[in-house]
Amino acid sequence: MPHVLNASPETCHWGFFDAAQAPVLTVASGETVVVHTVSGGPEVMPDGDGLDILPEHLDIQARSARPLPGHILTGPIAVDGAAPGDVIEVRFDAVTLRQNWGWNFIRPLAGTLPEDFPTGRQWTIPLDTDANEAALPWGDRLPLAPFFGVCGTAPPPEWGMVSSLHPRAFGGNLDLKELTAGTSLFLPVFVPGGNVSLGDGHAAQGDGEVNVTAIETALTGDITLTLHKEFSLPGPRAETPTHLIALGLDPSLDQAAKKALRAMIAWIGERVGLDAGEAYMLCSLAADLRVTQTVNGEKGVHCMLHRDRLAFAGG
Q1: pTM
Q2: Which of 93, 91, 95 is CA-nearest to residue 239?
Q3: Which one of 220, 221, 234, 245 has the lowest number of neighbouring Cβ atoms within 10 Å?
Q4: Whose CA is closest to 190, among 160, 221, 149, 148?
Q5: pLDDT, tens digit, 9 for 90 and up, residues 14-24
Q6: DSSP assignment string, 33-100
Q7: CA 39 – CA 73 distance, rounded (Å)
Q8: Bigger pLDDT: 312 vs 248
């Protein structure tokens, strides 16, 4: 039977990652955890009839400390035996909605176009859980593809408490919309146990997340945590059923693109033995550089390569 981790003031932390934080659950490698999450402070709560209000969401808002601006995260979850230098694979077996609404807002002086939108604006967006669609305010209906915007291990101890807003080497606020059911996220371990936390549920998001928010909502994730000691990583990467995804993070979008490309070149070499020049050529012919997000301080670019391009060597 999988472990179940409910969202509560005792199992959630608001706005931060911290190596000093004790895990709320420890599992063995290969075990599955059903993780419940919530999203947003009191300012996002709707007042419309027929919209689900989760009691634990209100309890967390009322009783949980909020030392830094950021997301409500469930965890941390430790993996027994994980040590600094290892890698934890977070496989998203299922990602499902917990409520029938989400929210989106424009934050003044933030986003990709802060100079164009100096005034804040907020929307409550009904979610049709049967049809798997969002009802947008202008009448369109948008298909849903839920994923967690934030998933990360604990940061290096010397970093102290860090905001969940900024993605780093430990993962965190990646906003990578490919992290849907069936995808694995690979995260470096910096503390014993690794200490995985997740949250920032998104019902749907475009690449870039340009106005700062997706359709933010409460999600449940069925995740399997697997410890890897046979390799190390300098930062997060992901594998979908069809693609390898190398991530680059940097305040400069140009530098983020270079980091993603260099990570993919190295990965191809590890996977199928191409030299750097051959892998660079393959990326130019077959890989796609995509903008993950432009709004989290550290901008994100991800390089996607279809697995078929490595099938010649069994990769």
Answers
A1: 0.97
A2: 91
A3: 234
A4: 160
A5: 999 999 999 99
A6: EEEE-----GGG----TT----HHHHHHHHH----SSS-EEEEEEEETT--TT-EEEEEEEEEEESSS
A7: 8
A8: 248
